[in-house]
Design brief:
Layout: H1 2-21, H2 27-38, H3 56-59, H4 63-71, H5 95-106, E1 134-137, E2 142-144, E3 153-158, E4 165-173, E5 180-188, E6 223-227, E7 233-235, E8 240-244, E9 249-256, E10 263-265, E11 268-273, E12 280-288, E13 301-308, E14 313-321, E15 326-334, E16 340-346, E17 357-365, E18 370-377, E19 405-412, H6 418-422
Parallel strand pairs: 8-12
Antiparallel strand pairs: 1-11, 2-10, 3-9, 4-7, 4-8, 4-11, 5-6, 5-9, 12-19, 13-18, 14-17, 14-19, 15-16, 15-18
Helix pairs in contact: 2-5, 4-5
Length: 430
């Protein structure tokens, strides 16, 4: 009997010690600051997150699901190998934040004292950038069928710019997220022959698309912004801006997917103009491989691509792009000295979260730097997203086909144009 008494006493002492070792974690004091910093960008009304995590009432029912998501690192989505690079938009949680969310769920998700609650973040309704100086919206709706494959659809909208404009922030907003898989926005220069045979202000599918996913767009008709799952804004610092030349048109390239219900879309893009001419013009370049053939059943098929810079630049951001068989991607710089540096490694690529990785500070890339990209594809039955592991796979627009593109946003002398920076004849880009 005495032994039983001491066992009970020991258990009680351990329970008290555990309570002392694990202080109470509350929503208002501990959890809400983590959500504001890392989660509310997506988890608020009108954004991509399936539920809003702004209030205790809205978050409490999801406590256990939040714990599971952060312990598995499924959320927040962030795929960069922490050994390489430092990124300003890193939303990954520290271990302390993961522990906070997990303990909160384990303790029954208490609300806590209202006086501990931080002030709510003041989100701009309808935008993730400041109120745009200009919004360009598709003038007509695009009808998306309930079933079938929808080819990339285009719409041209004039800007009406009578002078060059420098843009510091941009955001593409889908009109109907249920049918918009992704969107690219191009700037067609005055006098460019690209897509001139097509009407302005109405949707069309160009004949040229069968030769190129960008319908033959020359590099001078820049891809300046886009929307993909997890990425929809361009935010540059005060030294940087993108150029929209006078007389340019906006070209929306829309990838719609049918979902069993017919829908309509009217997407738009917002621009925040720079207050002054920039020190660095920012433009997107790429290293791509369009000639690969992935064998049936291959579980880690490697594809490589590269490009060489012909002037001094600053690296601003990196973005991998593959489709459903994409497995991993690595970006490297090979400097003129022969030194190699891994800029970004994504060990587990996710087609569902196509993130852009923005450097915390621009990295100087001297003239002659070779930018290399390597990627792995899983065309085996072990890839649960694989549409058909028995099929040979090549480049193509649709998700069941593949792409291999490494995007680089670089800053350079604003007196130069993109062909000058790439060191090739201008005629190649007309």
């Amino acid at each position: 009997m005495l032994r039983f008494y001491f066992e009970i006493l020991a258990l009680g002492t351990a329970a008290i010690a555990a309570d002392v070792a694990t202080p109470a974690v509350t929503f208002n004091k501990d959890v809400l600051p983590v959500l504001q910093k890392n989660c509310q960008t997506c988890h608020r009304p009108g954004e991509i997150g399936p539920m809003a995590l702004l209030t205790y009432e809205g978050t409490r029912p999801w406590a256990k699901a939040i714990k599971a998501a952060v312990l598995s690192k499924k959320m927040p989505p962030w795929f960069a190998d922490p050994q390489y690079g430092h990124f300003s938009n890193d939303r990954s949680l520290s271990q302390a934040d993961v522990n906070t969310l997990a303990v909160w769920a384990d303790q029954g998700a208490p609300e806590g004292d209202a006086k501990d609650r931080p002030a709510p973040v003041k989100w701009m309704e309808g935008w993730n950038i400041p109120q745009p100086d200009l919004v360009v919206e598709m003038p007509t709706d695009v009808a998306v069928p309930a079933k079938g494959t929808v080819e990339y659809t285009y719409m041209i909208v004039p800007t009406g710019f009578t002078e060059d404009r420098w843009v510091q922030e941009m955001e593409v907003r889908p009109g109907n997220r249920a049918v918009v898989h992704h969107a690219n926005v191009y700037i067609r220069r005055a006098g460019s022959p690209w897509l001139r045979k097509y009407p302005v202000g109405v949707p069309f599918v160009p004949d040229e698309q069968k030769f190129s996913s960008s319908a033959g767009a020359p590099l001078l008709d820049e891809n300046v912004a886009g929307f993909t799952p997890g990425k929809q804004t361009v935010v540059l610092n005060s030294r940087q801006a993108k150029l929209i030349p006078a007389g340019s048109d906006i070209v929306f390239q829309m990838h719609y997917t049918s979902n069993g219900t017919a829908g309509m879309d009217r997407s738009k893009i917002g621009f925040v103009f720079a207050k002054q001419a920039p020190e660095k013009r920012v433009a997107r370049i790429l290293a791509a491989n369009t000639t690969f053939t992935i064998p049936p059943g291959a579980d880690d098929y490697r594809v490589d691509a590269s490009t060489v810079l012909q002037t001094d630049t600053e690296l601003v951001s990196l973005k991998p792009h593959m489709h459903l068989r994409g497995k991993w991607m690595e970006f490297r710089a090979v400097y003129p000295t022969g030194e190699k540096e891994i800029l970004l490694r994504v060990p587990q690529y996710s087609f569902n979260w196509q993130l852009e990785f923005v450097l915390d500070r621009p990295k100087v890339l001297p003239k002659g730097t070779r930018l290399e990209v390597s990627a792995g594809f899983d065309n085996s039955p072990n890839n649960k997203f694989n549409p058909d592991p028995q099929k040979e796979v090549r480049w193509g627009d649709q998700s069941w086909e593949e792409m291999m593109i490494g995007y680089f946003e670089v800053g350079f002398n604003p007196k130069l144009d993109i062909p000058d920076m790439m060191g090739v004849g201008r005629k190649q880009f007309e």
